[in-house]
Design goal:
The complex is a heterodimer of chains A (about 775) and B (about 260).
Chain A: H1 2-19, E1 25-34, E2 45-49, E3 53-57, E4 63-69, E5 71-78, E6 85-91, E7 95-96, E8 99-101, H2 119-122, E9 128-132, H3 148-152, E10 158-160, E11 168-170, E12 178-182, E13 185-186, E14 191-192, E15 197-198, E16 205-211, E17 225-231, E18 240-245, E19 249-259, E20 263-272, H4 274-279, H5 284-287, E21 290-305, E22 308-323, E23 327-343, E24 348-365, E25 372-390, E26 395-414, E27 424-425, E28 429-443, E29 448-462, E30 465-470, E31 476-482, E32 487-505, E33 508-519, E34 521-524, E35 535-538, E36 546-559, E37 564-581, E38 597-613, E39 618-632, E40 642-643, E41 650-659, E42 664-673, E43 677-678, E44 681-687, E45 690-695, E46 701-702, E47 706-716, E48 724-732, E49 742-748, E50 751-761, E51 766-774
Parallel strand pairs in A: 1-7, 1-8, 12-17
Antiparallel strand pairs in A: 1-4, 2-3, 2-5, 5-6, 9-16, 10-11, 12-13, 14-15, 16-17, 18-19, 18-51, 19-20, 20-21, 21-22, 22-23, 23-24, 24-25, 25-26, 26-27, 26-28, 28-29, 29-32, 30-31, 32-33, 33-36, 34-35, 36-37, 37-38, 38-39, 39-40, 39-41, 41-42, 42-47, 43-46, 44-45, 47-48, 48-51, 49-50
Chain B: H1 2-18, E1 22-26, E2 37-43, E3 48-56, E4 73-78, E5 83-85, E6 87-90, E7 93-99, E8 106-113, E9 116-123, E10 132-140, E11 143-153, E12 161-168, E13 171-179, E14 187-192, E15 204-212, H2 214-226, E16 248-253, E17 255-262
Parallel strand pairs in B: 2-16
Antiparallel strand pairs in B: 2-3, 3-7, 4-5, 4-8, 6-7, 8-9, 10-11, 11-14, 12-13, 12-15, 15-17
Classes of the chains: A mainly beta (about 775), B mainly beta (about 260).
Chain lengths: ~775, ~260
């Protein structure tokens, strides 16, 4: 899209010509916090109205900066769920204005919210959905485990990767095409127990934003979406503890000030206890087994002075499975983020982040004659420098640089002397991703807003190692040895980002966006669901960066005094260098996996409708998506386009929340979607007396359609007590719909001359109860 | 095989432990694809009649059968210059004269049916003998299962692929493959994951142990992978055949070593 590049360039020329226009401007800046906890508020709106007007939205650290000419202004600071502050200010010099908002308990706010009442209409950002984590409690979930990723799946354009699965597909992307960030650290495997629970314990989470399109230029590295999750900073005023006892897990969170109003900490943990029941069994082959997962989130921050704040946050989670004295299997993520916020001037905000992320798995076999242990990992070191510059009341600029060093250890097999297994180590792979970006948010006039930016991203595959090139049939055509630090292959890409909104009137707008995204790290998974042992690979001589170009346009309207919100978005996406496998590819312990890869194109398009009632005793939303997702590979399906596995024609979600009294809240979720595209047999034959199925068109069939109704009720304890407690009761799949988790074809065990179709249903009707406390 | 199987067992174990899945036989409307040619050809190192089965695919709803294709011309040529012509003994079953295949020789099978010729080549690998069969017990969650392990010595420095065909009371119950990627040159006891629990003392179990070439290994690996085998389901596809012109099936020149064990 060279036209877009040129357009973006033109816009930058306009921007920089404006830099030279001198204005007698001052800056109003500061942070917006919650008055009760001191927790910074992300996305609060600060608006100054006077002879001219200007405004800003607080960033991820609660900081805002507005540059405005000298004069008298009416300041209005608002954030959904809080009482709006209005105050008069006189600007005759730079002003530091820190604001504390008071929670508004009268407002029964719905789960998914924009930052201010008409943010959804006025902001040029499109394809963005935010979740207010405090309110997630009210949406019914499987086994009572609150889960941000599952709540996200109820929004248009975001689809569940399967029954009870925390994996998700965004606008035709696969699960590995989502960039999942926890305090800026990429989380490689965001699920526990093979996908049934996400790694995000909602106790520890402050803010969740998901970008389905129109990604701002500061984000890069994945094709389909950005899920940006921010952890709680911790209460700066007092010490508090809260937690919950559920059917499968318990949670506890402790937070408080390090130095009052200067710094705070938060520690939150969750652990499942299915294995505690196993231990009760007198049978040694049962009580010796392990099966659990845990999550630990910890964060601390300290404000050194008005201009400098430090943050340290970490996440550690692990799944452990073991069959007594036979097998062991564990996997998990660790992330650590160290950040330094610094104000270079009243207009220039800087954040420097040093990020570590690691995902690994270990498989152990303790049986004597063929004992072994497999270790595999992906490890990142990431240095990020971001700047936000408030140029004037019309322009706000973001720019920065980022470098990530990846080390992938595909597998190391160790065994004892007595074992029949040989020790084997596959070569580690190292890569360096570097990026620089700049973007400008420009309020052209009261009606037209633009965000335009450019991201330059590079990827280098680094030695040491032997690097192979394969021909189209998967045969090795060359092998070259590289030394440590040598560049094996470089890829450079330019990613233009552009979005615009045009306000037709006070309550409705049209928006449009074009985005290019690049992906340099790819997850290889040939199973129909993801598994902890899926293999990560990087660009190489054979694998090229995945590229997606997306155009989207939408109509946004609020009505009935912003009580209702409606949006319709249409998108079309082209994808290049998509990856599939030859049939029979063995991904486990395969040092030559690239020999088995096939490359092709993808396209995805659809329409997303969203209607939400935002306030009142009864609130909720309807989300509907019509979409298509297709792939084309020369070596698959005779080169014809076929439906990708994430293709689903219709996808409908209904969410209703009714606050019956100050203590009782009832809610319900209904979901319906067309079945996934799958390959089923269209005939059969015999090989060596066994029945073998004959497949014709790739993904030519559909699984049966999926639908389900969940309900839940929450009873809050009597207010005013020191110990606040609440009960949540839920029923998953109320009418016991037998949704297909898998469809299998097999010989009838009672009559082997016949073949039968077997449907496996994972979750029938499942009740749950959770007790939550806070003091 | 061992490592993959262990992984599959763990996955299955998690699924079973976490949630009780519910299985039900359902009706599903499936298409009837135009029938395709299937060739199932074997050639062993034993001095015997070698058999090639030629058939066509049939409807999913029909009873399982061997849908033999009559009137094919089946000719085998060896890289040493021998030519064997097969004779049709019953519909779809083609027999060779008595002869044995030799390790290191490339065999090419030509099957002509309805004026279309399908060709596949397979190299008979060097022979590895099956030394013994032993019983092996595993217990998972209070239930213990007995399996059979095939014991052999893998030759060092060569890439080997093996196939295990297990018959219980004369019926084929398991057809698995393995390679020596992780145990090259070692004494190996490979467990064949067929549960013996339904059998009683005195029942006979036969295992045929074949050395197969790389393409044949890939064919059977893919076939078993598509069927899941208790692991995470893989998007199914036709296994990669070594025949050209779109025929399904495989031509397998293999060595053969058999043992029988009596259940105690």
């Amino acid at each position: 899209m060279p036209y877009t590049n040129r357009l973006v360039l033109l816009l930058f020329i306009i921007l920089f010509s404006q830099l030279s226009i001198a204005q007698n401007k001052f800056t109003v800046n500061g942070t917006v916090t919650d008055s009760g906890t001191g927790e910074t508020l992300i996305g609060a709106s600060v608006k100054l109205t006077g002879k001219t007007s200007g405004g800003a939205v607080t960033n991820s650290y609660g900081f805002y900066s507005v540059s405005i000419p000298e004069g008298n202004y009416e300041a209005s600071i608002s954030f959904i769920g809080y009482k709006t502050i209005k105050q008069s200010i006189t600007v005759s010099k730079d002003i530091r204005l820190n604001l504390a908002l008071v929670e508004d308990n009268q407002l029964t706010e719905v789960v998914i919210s924009a930052t201010k009442r008409d943010e959804n209409v006025s902001s040029p950002q499109m394809g963005l959905q935010k979740i207010n984590v405090r309110e997630i409690n009210n949406v019914p979930v499987l086994l009572g485990e609150r889960d941000v990723l599952k709540t996200l799946q109820l929004l248009p354009g975001i689809k569940s990767a399967g029954e009870g699965n925390s994996g998700f597909y965004v606008r035709g992307g696969s699960t590995d095409q989502n960039l999942i960030l926890l305090d800026e650290a990429p989380v490689y495997n965001a699920s526990h127990l093979l996908g049934f629970f996400s790694t995000f314990n909602s106790d520890a989470i402050k803010d969740v934003s998901v970008y389905k399109g129109g990604m701002p230029a500061q984000y890069g590295g994945r094709l389909a979406s950005v899920l940006d999750i921010k952890m709680n900073d911790g209460n700066r005023k007092t010490y508090t503890a809260e937690g919950g006892l559920g059917l499968i897990s318990s949670r506890v969170k402790v937070e408080g000030p390090i130095v009052k109003d200067k710094g705070s900490f938060m520690i939150s943990g969750r652990r499942t206890y299915l294995d505690a029941f196993l231990a009760l069994s007198p049978d040694s082959s049962i009580n010796g087994n392990t099966l659990f997962f845990y999550d630990l989130n910890a964060k601390a921050n300290y404000q050194l002075d008005e201009k400098n704040t430090l943050f340290l946050s970490g996440y550690f989670g692990r799944d452990k499975l073991g069959i007594s004295e036979t097998f062991g299997f564990n996997w998990g993520n660790s992330t650590v983020t160290l950040r330094w916020n610094h104000l270079y001037s009243n207009r220039l905000f800087s954040n420097t982040s040093l990020i570590y992320s690691n995902y690994n798995y270990v498989i152990q076999n303790f049986m004597e004659e063929n004992n072994f242990e497999v270790n595999s990992s992906i490890k990142d070191f990431n240095l990020k420098q971001d700047f936000e510059y408030s140029l004037n009341s019309k322009h706000s600029i973001k720019f920065g640089v980022n470098a990530i060093h990846h080390t992938i250890a595909p597998g190391k097999l160790t065994a004892s002397e007595a074992s029949s297994v040989n020790e084997t180590t596959y070569e580690n792979r190292k890569g360096l991703e570097a990026a620089a970006y700049i973007s400008d948010e420009w309020s052209v006039n009261d009606n037209l807003n633009l965000v335009y930016g450019l991201r330059l991203s590079s990827f280098s595959l680094l030695g040491p190692g032997n690097f192979k090139t394969y021909d189209a049939d998967g045969n090795t055509s060359s092998v070259t040895a590289y030394k440590s630090g040598e560049f094996v292959k470089n890829y450079i890409n330019l990613e233009p980002r552009f979005s615009a909104s045009y306000k037709i009137n006070g309550s409705s707008s049209f928006k449009g966006a074009y985005t290019r995204n690049i992906q340099n790290v790819h997850l290889m998974s040939n199973s129909t669901s993801t598994s902890p042992t899926d293999l990560y690979i990087m660009n190489s001589n054979n694998v090229k960066p995945e590229i997606a170009d997306q155009v989207a346009t939408g109509y946004f309207k609020n009505f009935n005094d912003d009580k209702y919100e409606f949006s319709a978005e249409v998108y079309y996406k082209w994808m290049q260098n998509q990856i599939e496998y030859r049939s029979g590819t063995d991904l486990r312990g395969n040092g030559n996996v690239e020999a088995d890869l096939l490359y092709g194109d993808g396209r995805a398009y659809g329409i997303e409708l969203f209607l939400k009632k935002r306030f009142g005793k009864f609130n909720g939303w309807i989300g509907y998506t019509w979409s298509r997702t297709e792939r084309q590979f020369d070596a698959i399906n005779e080169g014809k386009w076929f439906y990708a596995k994430q293709d689903r024609t219709h996808d409908l979600s209904l969410v209703g929340i009714y606050k019956a009294s100050t203590r009782w809240t009832f809610s319900s979720v209904f979901v319906y979607n067309t079945g996934n595209a799958v390959t089923y047999p269209s005939g059969k034959y015999q090989i060596n007396d066994r029945t073998v199925f004959y497949y014709t068109e790739k993904n030519g069939y559909r699984t049966p359609s999926y639908h389900r109704l969940d309900v839940s009720a929450t009873l809050e304890g009597k207010p005013g007590k020191r110990l606040q407690s609440s009960w949540s009761f839920g029923i998953y799949n109320l009418y016991n719909r037998k949704n297909a988790f898998s469809i299998d074809f097999e010989d009838n065990p009672d009559n082997p001359s016949q073949t039968q179709v077997v449907r496996t249903t994972l979750f029938g009707i499942i009740p749950s109860v959770t007790w939550n406390f806070k003091f | 095989m061992m490592i993959n199987k262990i992984f599959n067992i763990i996955v299955l174990f998690v699924l079973l432990m976490s949630f009780s899945g519910c299985e039900e036989v359902i009706d599903l409307k499936l298409d009837d694809a135009p029938s395709a040619v299937v060739i199932d050809g074997g050639l062993s190192d034993q001095n015997e009649i070698q058999v090639v089965k030629v058939s066509t695919t049939y409807k999913f709803t029909e009873n399982n059968k061997f849908n033999g294709a009559k009137g094919a011309k089946v000719v085998l040529t060896s890289s040493t210059g021998n030519i064997y012509t097969y004779a049709e003994v019953s519909p779809g079953i083609y027999n060779s004269p008595v002869f044995r295949g030799r390790s290191g020789v490339t065999y090419t099978l030509n099957v002509t049916l309805n004026n279309k010729t399908y060709t596949a080549s397979s190299v008979m690998p060097a022979k590895v003998n099956l030394d013994s069969l032993t019983f092996k017990e595993f217990s998972f969650f209070g239930t213990s299962n007995t399996y059979i392990a095939a014991n052999y010595k893998d030759p060092a420095g060569i890439q080997n692929q093996y196939r295990y065909i297990l018959k219980a009371k004369g019926v084929i119950e398991e057809d698995a493959v393995s390679e020596d990627r992780f145990d090259d040159g070692n004494k190996v006891a490979n467990v064949i994951f067929y549960e013996l629990n339904d059998l009683v003392a005195g029942d006979l179990i036969d295992v045929e142990f074949q050395c197969i070439d790389r393409n044949v290994y890939k064919y059977f690996f893919s076939l078993n992978q598509s069927e899941g085998g208790g692991g995470p389901p893989v998007a199914p596809a036709n296994p990669p055949s070594n025949f050209n012109n779109g025929a399904l099936g495989v031509f397998n020149a293999h060595t053969s070593s058999k043992k029988t064990i009596v259940l105690k």
